[in-house]
User: Which sequence fits this backbone?
């Protein structure tokens, strides 16, 4: 049995979704010293890059994503992602407590990979079962 990389409840990643990904990745490189790792994406027939930003050659800092394609409906802001044990059960609880589903990503088998929700006060965050 493999050991989990993240603990349930731990913030594991943050993405900035924006319509200015190319210029903002340069901003964060200059201001924070991050390095970019392009991630190939497609929107219909058009190809573009999102960016995994790294502290050094191995240590991730976060992501800077274009607000298009699979990210078109994600609000333009930094979004933190939290590790949960069961995405479906956590989403059900979030909805029962007044949350609003903003975006969902499904695996090839149809199960939820991760979701982005808005809490009752309007703050947006994501969660998934990250290992």
Assistant:
């Amino acid at each position: 049995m493999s050991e989990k990389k993240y603990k349930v409840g731990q913030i594991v990643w943050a993405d900035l979704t924006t319509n200015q990904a190319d210029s903002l990745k340069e901003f964060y490189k200059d201001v924070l010293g991050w390095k970019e790792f392009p991630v190939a994406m497609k929107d219909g027939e058009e190809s573009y890059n999102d960016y995994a930003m790294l502290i050094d050659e191995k240590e991730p800092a976060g992501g800077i994503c274009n607000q298009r394609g699979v990210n078109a409906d994600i609000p333009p802001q930094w979004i933190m992602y939290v590790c949960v044990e069961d995405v479906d059960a956590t989403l059900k609880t979030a909805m029962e407590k007044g949350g609003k589903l903003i975006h969902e990503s499904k695996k090839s088998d149809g199960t939820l990979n991760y979701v982005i929700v808005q809490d009752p006060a309007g703050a947006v965050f994501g969660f998934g079962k990250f290992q």
